[in-house]
Amino acid sequence: MSSSSYIELSREAYEHNLRFLRGLIKKGTRFSSVVKGNAYGHGIDAFVPMAESLGVDHFSVYSADEAREVFQAIKSERTELMIMGYISNESLEWAITNDISFFVFEFDRIKAAAETAERLKKKAKIHIELETGMNRTGFDHEEVSRLIPFIKKYQDHLIIEGLCTHYAGAESIANYLRVEEQKKNFNQMAQLLVDNGIEPKMRHTCCSAASIRLPDMHEDMVRIGILQYGFWPSREIFIEYLKGKEDKTEPLRRLIAWKSTIMSVKHVEMGEFVGYGTTYLAQRDMKIAIVPIGYSHGFSRSLSNTGRVLIGGFRVSVIGMVNMNNLAIDVSELENVKKGDEVTLIGKSGDVEISVASFGELSDQLNYELLTRLPTKIPRIIK
């Protein structure tokens, strides 16, 4: 492989996670796979066809550019696609033409959608997002009252595919009262729409954390992101899931492993500095290896002199400064290390593992942040 590193995705692990999630979700509730942020760093081009082959038939993205990527990756005509965030008015024609649904949360978008649909002589599939307390996007209670006649005016050009909201921090018990208020607000506004003859095909409010914490709000569909990739939205959610269960084993499996190779091995004499500046002084004669990965590839500069990688089932230290394109590791204790040997940056090697969580803690990044910062240029392969 010509790339300096690659990412492996485990089909077996994803299949396992899907079984767990389908057992968790209320019967009859649809599963939407959230693949925003390049499928949380797992790679849309690799992940989406794998998910489809395992029965996933609905994908959610943040923006129209992500939707175009997913649209190119999907294989089945039955698979549906939903845009939850940004779509320019100019992109509405493409979305409507290709039966891609999208959130509407302000009047300009819904007006532009209706007018575009009328021009195309094809109905726009919209999800009405309600502002229930997140204070980000969505129609608030007063706006919903004004929205009702607006929708009726354009009803010949719109399909009310869904009614939705997003919870403000369902991953933390500290937000309990705020989330409970959001649930109440959602139900009140939903009823107002129904009372005025506007009945969406589906209701959906739950992300990964809410799917665990709020089973009463599974509604018609849940939007699952981080859980499907084998990660918990927070440690608090994991603990809550385990509460009262006899089996305390981790029910999720990580899909992702990030690997590279040694590009050179050399000896450094005691008293010499390694890499830029004077941050690492050899305290003895050493054997070091150079790995062609640096901060431009997503291996944070903050891991200089603190990071760890795996070689042949052994954990070794990053020494010196992490450069833009490479890093140095101490392999003094390993015999027969040579150019071309596999280096695991995230994942397992033998009986040892560097988890995304531990990697993230060392580099002061959330799981979400670390994963989505992995460059799109790194090849993703299914294992």
Structural features, described:
- By secondary structure, the chain is of the alpha/beta class.
- It folds into two domains: 11-242, Alanine racemase (TIM Barrel, Alpha-Beta Barrel); 256-354, Lyase, Ornithine Decarboxylase, Chain A, domain 1.
- The chain has helices spanning 11-24, 36-40, 44-53, 64-73, 92-97, 107-120, 141-153, 176-195, 208-213, 235-242, 356-362, 367-372, and strands spanning 5-9, 30-34, 58-61, 80-83, 101-104, 124-129, 158-164, 202-204, 221-224, 256-261, 264-268, 286-291, 308-311, 314-319, 327-330, 342-349, 352-354, 380-382.
- The chain has an eight-stranded parallel sheet with strand order 8-7-6-5-4-3-2-9.
- Strand 4 (80-83), helix 5 (92-97) and strand 5 form a beta-alpha-beta unit.
- Helix 7 (141-153) runs parallel beside helix 8 (176-195).
- The radius of gyration is 24 Å and the shape is elongated.
- The protein starts with a strand and ends with a strand.
- The model has no long low-confidence stretch (mean pLDDT 94).
Strand order of the largest sheet: 8-7-6-5-4-3-2-9
Low-pLDDT parts are: none
What Rg do the Cα atoms give? 24 Å
Q: Gap between N and C termini, in Å?
A: 15 Å
Secondary-structure element sequence? EHEHHEHEHEHEHEHEHEHEEEEEEEEHHE
Number of domains: 2
CATH architecture title of the largest domain = Alpha-Beta Barrel
The structural class is: alpha/beta
- Give the CA-based shape: elongated
Count of separate DSSP helical elements: 12
Helix content: 25-40%
Please give the number of β-strands: 18
Strand content: 15-25%
Name of the CATH class of the largest domain: Alpha Beta
| Mean pLDDT across residues | 94
- CATH-derived topology of the largest domain: TIM Barrel
Identify the CATH homologous superfamily of the largest domain.
Answer: Alanine racemase
Quick one: biggest sheet? 8 strands, parallel
